[in-house]
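Ops channel
N.P.: pipeline sanity check, posting one input/output pair.
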């Protein structure tokens, strides 16, 4: 069974996924970050493939991606590092990347390399549904990879149903129409959106991302969705701490998952 399926079968709510940029803060940091995140309590990990033109990413992820590319991160290097880490952990790993570099690598080769290295799922924000259904779906499924498509507050119901049909593993539920890294609280319109999607009876789990940066926003998500994806808030702490392990511990200390002592400080 795919590791994402195992996770969602065993944990029905409160799933925490943490995003980091591969190759940041240095080229060979993937293993240390994954082990640190797992040790502190992440349920799954989203690994960002650095790209020079990240359409949906805010300034924090853009900056870390630029540094990662300067450090020499490539898909070949990334697959090598993931293959090594799979000897030490079975935590679900999802790759998030834009379509252009995957096509340049060769999409079939990308999927087989990802599966062989131990990747469980993919998020490709700029992959249109028609192109996926027509050209790429068979390749993804043949490699036993899950794929998550994105919905936003503006996504029409008919398209949400189509995305639910094509997604596997989970749906990436974007909390806002803006880019990643926003630090304001969720407004009533967004909370209503969370409740509306929760009431649709979708076959896939929903993982909410964009704008989750403190205990309050995390709890709002956990009340309405199956889980949360946090990226920029974690990367901000990595930027200000020379030690990956201590930065990760600080991140979880400030975050405080529901059911534990609540943090009084936010993550930035």
């Amino acid at each position: 069974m795919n590791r994402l399926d195992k996770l969602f079968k065993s944990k029905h709510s409160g799933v925490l996924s943490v995003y980091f940029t591969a190759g940041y803060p240095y080229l060979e940091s993937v293993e240390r970050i994954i082990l640190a995140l797992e040790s502190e309590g992440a349920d799954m990990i989203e690994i960002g493939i650095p790209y020079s033109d990240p359409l949906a990413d805010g300034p924090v992820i853009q900056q870390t991606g630029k540094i990662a590319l300067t450090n020499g991160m490539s898909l070949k290097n990334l697959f090598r590092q993931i293959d090594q880490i799979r000897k030490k952990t079975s935590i679900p790993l999802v790759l998030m990347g834009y379509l252009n570099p995957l096509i340049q690598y060769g999409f079939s080769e990308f999927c087989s390399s990802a599966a062989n290295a131990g990747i469980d799922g993919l998020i490709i924000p700029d992959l249109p549904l028609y192109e996926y259904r027509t050209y790429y779906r068979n390749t993804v499924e043949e490699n036993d990879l899950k794929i998550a498509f994105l919905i936003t507050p503006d996504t029409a119901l008919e398209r949400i149903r189509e995305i639910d049909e094509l997604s596997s593993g989970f749906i990436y539920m974007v909390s806002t129409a803006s880019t990643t890294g926003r630090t304001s609280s969720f407004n009533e319109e967004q909370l209503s959106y969370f409740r509306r999607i929760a009431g649709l009876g979708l076959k896939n789990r929903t993982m909410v991302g964009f704008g989750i940066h403190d205990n309050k926003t995390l709890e709002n998500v956990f009340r309405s969705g199956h889980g949360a994806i946090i990226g920029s808030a974690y990367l901000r702490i990595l930027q200000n701490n020379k030690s990956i392990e201590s930065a990760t511990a600080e991140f979880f200390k400030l975050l405080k998952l529901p059911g534990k002592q609540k943090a009084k400080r936010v993550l930035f």
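N.P.: looks fine end to end. Residues 76 and 113 are 9 Å apart (CA to CA).
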